[in-house]
Amino acid sequence: MTADPTTAPHFPPGFLWGTATAAYQIEGAVREDGRTPSIWDTFSHTPGKVDGGDTGDIAVDHYHRRSQDVALMKELGLGAYRFSVAWPRVQPTGRGPAVQRGLDFYRRLVDELLDAGITPMATLYHWDLPQELEAAGGWPERETAHRFAEFAQLVGEALGDRVNLWATLNEPWCSAFLGYGSGVHAPGRTDPVAALRAAHHLNLAHGLGTQALRGVLPSRAEIAVSLNAAVVRPLTDSDADADARRRIDALATRVFSDPMLHGKYPADLLADTASVTDWSFVHAADLEVIRQPLDALGINYYTPSVVSAAAGGQAVREDGHNASEHSPWIGVDDVNFHRAPGDPTAMGWPVDPTGLYDLLMRFSREAPGLPLLVTENGAAYEDVPDADGVVHDPERIAYLHAHLDATRQAITDGADVRGYFLWSFMDNFEWAYGYAKRFGIVRVDYDTQTRTPKSSAHWYSRVARTNRLPEPETEATAAGPAGDTATGAVTEAAEAV
């Protein structure tokens, strides 16, 4: 991961151009080769939890279509691929020796990526906790962090000779606060104390997992963590709204970044949540364990948040319900959320690339010398094939161009950004939204599993191959159909899938 700043519109030499996915969202084969249920298997099979009653049982069948998917990545000229390792596929009970059949899938995936000239980045935890560990208490229990370290060691031993870039956790905020606070993600619990305990034990898992990886990986390996750090902006310049911003920032971002980067929990966070817990689950040596030296920090970004102090001290969500009813914002019942400016994506998330710039500059200042990676960024839109089966998605191209330009500007202004992983390589199971939202640059027909690169895939292919953003007047050419000389073989690869 070596890159030197350069001038617009180019990106630094050696910049990683990648895409990202997660195991439960794409693999399917949930009962094959020894795999047991994860919390997302259980959650998605619980009536009313996922839109349309969808599950990841088949997803996009990547477990059986791995080789074709890698071939498509190669044809698109992608330089890197961030995937996650399914914990219950490797260690079905969350304890004990690895199932070699499960590890073999990832060994073959990595080998094929390397043969294709694609840098693999392995994420160890993207939300698929083995159900047996949840039955024993899940992330609110300290033991789960130790079990994660054991899992990290097993995967590191199996793949460490070929994978040089690792991430311990993906978006621990979602695991803790959506999984145990609001209950809209697996395992679907709504216990504010459990959510804060889970946040700490995820931090501890990151530290223990990093130590375990360091013990088995070669010295060249680089370890990161991917945080969905929030961009929180006050509605007005009032002191009350500024304090609302501070409180949400503490619970959304600093609850993870402060322990991981600085070895402490924010004093204001502890004060804000004192009525919920005394944080006695934090043991004396924990913060030293959590603060492990990192080789990079992964940043996931989609949209900013706008907040204000609630009139009368009681927040109301957009749906009219009391914000304290199963809220992920533990101890923060008096903050209102407002829609940020910008045209919305299919998720209803306003488009604002300045938020990505702000995050990159924030962590460039906060952790000087620590390289940054954009490990997730992308947008869902209503992608519909035309009469010829071509998927034109100009909104996504505009979204990507704007956010890549923000990334390039951050690099120009001194941020050491080493790579960009677009979310997502292909349409997939979008968690509680099921298959209703499409983030991929490759369209998947869920009935036939046919893969079709969208216009954005061809556009991104050109960006990756040239290491620069196209000029606006050339965007249509860069996003052209498979007849484009840079991407002409893509159609053939897609048809083979």
UniProtKB/TrEMBL annotation:
Residues 475-497 have a biased composition (Low complexity). Residues 467-497 are annotated as: Disordered. The active site is at residue 376. It is an enzyme of class 3 (hydrolase). InterPro entries: GH (IPR017853), GH_1_N_CS (IPR033132), Glyco_hydro_1 (IPR001360), Glyco_hydro_1_AS (IPR018120), Glyco_hydro_1_beta-glucosidase (IPR017736). Its EC number is 3.2.1.21. Keywords: Carbohydrate metabolism, Cellulose degradation, Glycosidase, Hydrolase, Polysaccharide degradation. GO terms for molecular function: beta-galactosidase activity. It comes from the Bacteria. Belongs to the glycosyl hydrolase 1 family. This is Beta-glucosidase. It comes from Streptomyces lycii.
